Amino acid sequence: FLQLFLVEKAGRRSLFMSGLMGMLVSAVAMTVGLALLSQFAWMSYVSMVAIFLFVIFFEVGPGPIPWFIVAELFSQGPRPAAITIAGFCNWTCNFIVGMCFQYIADLCGPYVFVIFAALLLAFFLFAYFKVPETKGKSFEEITAAFRRKKHSTIRGAKAMTELEDLRGSEEA
Predict the structure, then answer these.
(1) Which residues span the membrane (predicted)?
(2) What are phi and psi of 136, to 5 degrees?
(3) How far apart are the first and last CA of the chain?
C-alpha cells in the first residue's frame, strides 16, 4: 500500500535499482552468515536480518516496480500482450526457483545465495544501462528517449532532441 505513494515520490527507476542493490547486499550477507554459522553462533542473527532485509528490498523495488514500468512502456494496443508476457516470465521464473532451490541448496551449501547475488548484479547493470525513468513521462516521451538512445548508438549519428524526434514521428 505504501509503495503507491513511494513510487510517485521517489521514481520508478531509482526504487527499482535501490531494491536490486539492497537485495544484492542482503544475499551477500546471507551467504556470509551461513558460511560462518559453524564458527560464530551469532551469525544466525545476521542471516535472519538479511532475510528480512531481502524481503523488504524486494517489496520496495523488484516486486511492484516492473508492473508499473511494463504498463508505462507500451501504448494501449500492445499493453495487454506485454503485461501477459511479463506475468508469464515472472511466474515461470518463480516456479523454476521454487522447484530447483532445494537441489541447488544441497549442491552449493551455504553459498547458494551467491547465484542470486550474481543474478541481482546482472539485473542491476541491465536496469542501470537500459531501463528508463518513466515517472511523470508520457508514452511518447518514453518512446522518444528510446529512439534517441538508438540513434546515438549509431556511429556518427547526431542525437536528436526530444522535440525533433516527436516532430519526426508526427510526419511519418
Answers:
(1) 20-42, 48-70, 82-105, 111-129
(2) 70, 15
(3) 42
Where do runs of H (alpha helix) occur along the chain?
A: 2-10, 12-35, 43-60, 65-73, 79-108, 112-130, 139-153, 162-171
| Packing angle of the helix pair 12-35, 2-10 (nearest 10 deg) | 110
The answer to whether the beta carbons of residues 29 and 46 sit under 8 Å apart is yes
CA-CA-CA-CA torsion for 6, 8, 12, 15, nearest 10 degrees?
Answer: -20
- Measure Cα distances from 7 to 4, 60, 63, 95 in Å: 6, 9, 12, 27
Q: Shortest CA distance to 60 belongs to which of 9, 113, 118? A: 9
State the pLDDT at residue 159: 45
pTM: 0.78
Lowest-confidence range among 3-17, 47-61, 68-82, 135-149? 135-149
Please, are residues 51 and 30 in contact by the beta-carbon 8 Å criterion? yes
Cα distances from 109 to residues 42, 87, 101, in angstroms, run: 19, 31, 11
Question: Position 62: which residue type?
Answer: P
